[in-house]
Amino acid sequence: MKLPRLKHYKWWLRVAAYSFLVAGQTTATLLGRLYYDQGGNSKWMETFVQSAGFPILLPLLFFFSPSLRSTPSTPLNTSSMKSPPFYTLAFLYLGFGLMLTFNNLIQYRLENMIGVPKGKYVIGFLCTIGASATYSLDLSSLQLSFQRVIKDETFSAVLDMQIYASFFTTCCCLEGLFASGEWKLLGKEVENYGKGRVSYMMTLIWTAVTCQISSIGMLGLIFEVSSLFSNVISTFALPVVPILAVILFHDKMDGVKVMALLLAVWGFLSYMYQHYLDDSKSMVNKTSTNEASGTGAVIDVC
């Protein structure tokens, strides 16, 4: 009875990860668009809020902590549960924090390309390629870290990765915010925000929350499936944003957006179809192997 329950649990865990990633990424992107449309212009503030919401995950970290949930009667294999050295984890979290900071800064460039001359769209194109490459590298590095360094198949390991990496990212963004002098302009930015102070604060707060939700979904899919699958689900969220932007911000659905939407859907469906074929082939091979082993057993008995 434990095996069906385990499969059922994993299925619901993946559904939750899908929902977190798609809903969080879509909402965070739309809130970032609202921030710039209403007069927000601080690249470091927008980058800061994408990682500063990690404290909301601390209660979950305490709840899922193995030290709090383990009992004395539960035997532990110390050889397999040995933690990596502290300096290894510190270097790992710092590296991912720097990668997240770089990726968030490039994303700022992409979201702030509204109303700029067409000649500068070359910069936007290069930023798009750089952000996509960095994001894919980040996902692959995370999967490699889970497999080779952390080696801990628990939800607390996912929370550790998100919280500590976000902490280093937040520190880098704070340093950039004060070093660039943008913190001096935040008061004026709040005063001139189109929808008022309350809307300004709520936009930043919910951006921070939804970014953490999206990141937990992303890490959960990397942990449960693979970095490629997490990237595919993230790509699936791309067509949702233009459709909601047409409804909420009254954008025009031009030919370029339609082509981008179709390409995103095509890429997602292509991966899912190939995944279905691979899974079907694996099931057929497994069935053939079981039948062959069963036949061999009958021959041996006879």
From TrEMBL:
Annotated localization: Membrane
Lipid bilayer topology: Multi-pass membrane protein
Pfam family, one: PUNUT
InterPro entries: PUP_plant
Residue intervals passing through the bilayer: 12-36, 48-66, 86-106, 118-137, 200-222, 228-249, 256-273
Top-rank lineage group of the source organism: Eukaryota
Keyword ATP-binding assigned: no
Listed GO CC annotations: membrane
Gene Ontology terms for molecular function: purine nucleobase transmembrane transporter activity; purine nucleoside transmembrane transporter activity
Keyword annotations of the record: Membrane, Transmembrane, Transmembrane helix, Transport
PANTHER family xrefs: OS09G0467300 PROTEIN-RELATED, PURINE PERMEASE-RELATED
Family, per entry: Belongs to the purine permeases (TC 2.A.7.14) family.
Protein's UniProt name: Probable purine permease
Protein species of origin: Quercus suber (Cork oak)
